[in-house]
Amino acid sequence: MGTKLIIDTDPGVDDAFAIALAALSEDVDLLGVTTVFGNVSLEATTRNALRVLQLCGRADVPVAAGAERPLIHPQPARAVRVHGADGLSGRASALPEPERDLVPGGAVRLLVSLLEAADEPVTLAPIGPLTNIALLLAAHPDVKAKIARIVLMGGGVDRGNSTASAEFNIWSDPEAARRVLVEEDVPCVVVPLDLTYRCAVSTEWLAKLAAHSPIGAALEALTPDYLASYRRSLGWDGIVLHDAVAVAEAISPGILRTEAYPVEVETSFGPGRGATLVDRRRPGMRGEGEGAVAPSAVQVAVDTDVDGLGEFVLGRLTR
Question: Which intervals hold domain Inosine/uridine-preferring nucleoside hydrolase (predicted)?
Answer without folding.
Answer: 5-308
